[in-house]
Amino acid sequence: MRPFKYTKASNPVNAVQTVAANKNSRFLAGGTNILDLMKEDVERPDELVDVTRLNLTQIKTVSDGVNKGGVSIGGLGKNTDAANHPLIRQNFPLLTQAILAGASQQIRNMATNGGNLNQRTRCSYFYDVAMPCNKREPGTGCGALEGINRMHAVFGWSNDCVAVHPSDMCVALVALDAVVKVQGTDGAERSIPFIDYHRLPGNTPQKDNNLNQGELITAIEIPKNNFSDKSYYLKVRDRASYAFALISVAAALEMDGNKIKQARVAMGGVAHKPWRATEAEKFLTGKEATEANFKQAAEMEMKQAKPLEYNKFKVELGKRAIARALMQAMNGGTV
Amino acid sequence: MEDGSKELKLTDDEQELLNELLDDSAKLSETGESRRQFLRNVSAASAAILATQMLAEQKITAYTPTENVSGASYAIENGVKVVMKVNGAEKSLNVDSRMTLLDALRERLELTGSKKGCDHGQCGACTVIIEGRRVLSCLTLAATCEGKEVTTIEGLAKGDALHPMQAAFVKHDGFQCGYCTPGQICSAVALLSEAKNGEASYVTADVRAKARAIQLSDDEIRERMSGNICRCGAYPNIVDAIKEVHTGKDVAQTWQFAGDNNAAIFEKAAKNEEGA
Questions:
Q1: Looking at the partner chain, which of B97, B136, B205 has a beta carbon nearest the beta carbon of A107?
Q2: Could you give the domains of chain A?
């Protein structure tokens, strides 16, 4: 690992100023991703600003603003605490399941909520500094585009990057229309709708999200909803636990009698950002919650998929995963 | 390591051989050794080698690092002073900002129980408990541990009395090579309190249910231990060991030697395969 200066931030404003002033500095929160990347020489910061002791860990009901009645989770709270908080377990079990589907207990005990959003892709070409990668080193090309791309994107990729976002938590958050609260570099707080937080690669894959250098996630707000008794997070992976998703699906339904009033479907492991399956959602609105309709919705969503050489299986897998997640959600979301 | 002053202990046999060796060396001037005497000398020499080795071990184990550990003999860049509590004892270190907690434990505090497996947070061998929670020491910077309470595998036993989880791992043969074991045990110890607090897992039937102490199924134990990889594949025995401590009830071995009945089943299956 390259040498770096270590400083402890005393408050959010000071933390933001420090990192904004030095483009080679990074925040250090849980450390589960950045330290790994530093050991691999993928990340090479000359300064780490430790924000773990900032008081941004609370989980509470939102008392004002557009998300009033929803829940706010602190950007520097731990994933384990978010997953297990009664406000989350009872109101947003989808989020609890998604968080618990990711990583291991040890890592969830360390990783923060904000850090989960900002974790980088696990694309093996990004991790291997001997390989070309536009995300790591813009202009060097994409090793995965015509390489071993079994784990890569089927939606929204570009010739410059076919990597996927690795988070499970974010798949639930995009389905739940969360909002990311950010401490800006000008001292003011700004809000970013979750769907706009992460980016598609286009020709700037080095930018994973729309944060500016130095901006700090203070909280994530989840608006109130009526999905809590019909939601499910399904994760399909190479082994039963502790592996990144081949495909994951966050599914949530709100019923009006026997018709679907509102459906939310989002996918992980398929794109450079948590993928909101809007085609499936549109199709399901007003329909009956039958397996045939779920399959049809899945068919429509996956019709837009553009698989690469080694991930063609994700198209069929995606269809089945969407249908199964919706069925599980309809059945109450229990395992 | 707890008692550097303890006497070297030899078994009765070893003591007798040593005495004979001393006797014999007094008679070294005598010539014409019998075969019996020759063999006796050889055995005594072996015992002497054994004794030397034990003396050396005693010397090593008696060594407790008492010098000010903050003074390292190598260059430290971007030094950070850290005071933390490790297994109940306050430790003061001046660490390179790059130093992980794992390296600080192993290289500076001489606590080599925590293992460096992958060093990338993928295997769990470095698992330690910080403030009651299991974490990966390979992805924790020592510099961030100021004021923290760290428990490693060395801190679980009370003197010679093993922690119940350690005893259960021994009883159920929850390891083969043993390299992942300290991490497995630290992880399992923390798992017990997570279950007690009613924390959910991905295989918990209904996460909306109010958190209360959970009785973990085998599937729950497997899911919750998935961050600890065992390359020898001692998983079934690890699950048994954890279950025994978790439930407080003896867990019987679940495997058995194949009997006549099983043999007949295998034979039939083999025949069917041939026919297919």
A1: B136
A2: 5-53 (3.30.43.10), 231-330 (3.30.390.50)
Residue B22 has a pLDDT of 67
Confidence label for B242 from pLDDT (cuts 50, 70 and 90): very high
Closest CA to A201 of A145, A135, A139: A135
Contact assignment for A83 to B200 by CB distance below 8 Å = yes
- B161 interfaces chain A, CB cutoff of 8 Å: no
| pLDDT 10s digits, B66-92 | 444 444 556 899 999 999 999 999 999
- The answer to whether residue A176 neighbours chain B at the CB level (below 8 Å) is no
Rounded CA gap, B169 and B181, in Å?
Answer: 9
Q: How far is CA A189 from the centre of its chain?
A: 21
CA distance B92 to B90: 7
Question: pLDDT per residue over A22-49, tens digit each?
Answer: 999 999 999 999 999 999 999 999 999 9
Q: In Å, what is the CA distance from A114 to each residue of A177, A211, A238?
A: 16, 12, 27
Measured CA to CA, the distance from residue B39 to residue B226 in angstroms comes to 55
Q: Which pTM value belongs to this model?
A: 0.86
Which residue in the set A100, A228, A333 is minimally distant from B201, CB to CB? A100
